[in-house]
Amino acid sequence: EVIRIHEASLDILEHVGVIIPEPRFLEHLEAAGATVDFKKQHVFFPPWLVDECIKKAPKHFTWHGRTDDTNMFMGDNVVNHGPASSILRVVDMDDTIRLATVNDTERFTRLVGASPNLKEGYCVVHPSDVPDEVHHAYMVFSMFRNSPKPFRGRAFGQKEALDSIRLAEIAAGGEKELKKRPSLITNCCPI
Predict the structure, then answer these.
(1) Which three-class secondary structure state does DSSP give residue 186?
(2) What is the pLDDT of residues 17-60, one digit of tens each?
(3) Is the pLDDT of residue 156 over 80?
(4) Of residues 112 and 35, which shows the higher confidence score?
(5) Of 67, 102, 111, 188, whose CB is crowded by the most CB atoms within 10 A?
(6) Cβ pair 62, 71 in contact under 8 A
(7) How far apart are CA 125 and CA 166, in angstroms?
(8) Which residues contact 75 (CB under 8 A, 6 or more apart)?
(9) pTM for the model
């Protein structure tokens, strides 16, 4: 079943592709061997390129929390659970449904940080009461302020990704410390 999923993924990446609205990243992908339509910001990945990248990925690694007891081992078929993310609305105790706020971001991140069943300190809600240009910074800051667990950065563009790295460096005590004990990871959702 895993092989069929992998083969279907390769087919989608090669024939359907992914939209990536970052010109510099498109240049890197083309140089690596992907087919890029720069006008449409559409990337098609040949199977050999995907397989080459998978081979370069480590078989396992430690995703560090701020304390050793919150480190997360990744690999060797170990399953780690984390929360959902970027939820836009919350339900109050009186059943009122409303947009999430920075205060909700803080509260939910503390809840995730306290849960023994969730191994990462990802930000659950997307605050609506701050400008879009900085919401990611509030989310990342909340993660390392309210949880000792490893966390995912925001990467919906170069600025968000770089801001996430800078905040993680501050939380770790500098760039060298973050490199020694990487606590930040991110994923890019192509949807």
Answers:
(1) coil
(2) 999 888 888 999 999 999 999 999 999 999 999 999 999 989 99
(3) no
(4) 35
(5) 102
(6) yes
(7) 21
(8) 58, 59, 60, 61
(9) 0.77
Backbone angles phi, psi at 98, to 5 degrees: -145, 165
Helix 102-114 and helix 135-146, axial crossing angle in degrees, nearest 10? 30
Say if residues 13 and 44 touch (Cβ distance below 8 Å). yes
- Is residue 50 helix, strand or coil? helix
- The CB density around residue 162, as the number of other CB atoms within 10 Å, is 12
Whether the Cβ atoms of residue 10 and residue 47 lie closer than 8 Å to each other:
yes
- Cβ atoms 136, 157 nearer than 8 A: no
The Cα–Cα gap between 113 and 148 comes to: 7
Closest CA to 147 of 170, 114, 184: 114
Half-sphere exposure of 183 (CA within 13 A, CB side): 31
Q: Where are the beta strands (DSSP E) in the chain?
A: 18-19, 35-37, 42-44, 60-63, 72-75, 89-91, 97-99, 151-152, 184-185
**DSSP secondary structure letters along 82-122:** -----B-EEE-TTS-EEE--HHHHHHHHHHHHH-TT--S--
* Amino acid identity, position 43: V
Instruction: Kindly report the number of other CB atoms within 10 A of residue 95's CB atom.
Output: 6
Measured between its terminal Cα atoms, the distance across the chain in Å is 23
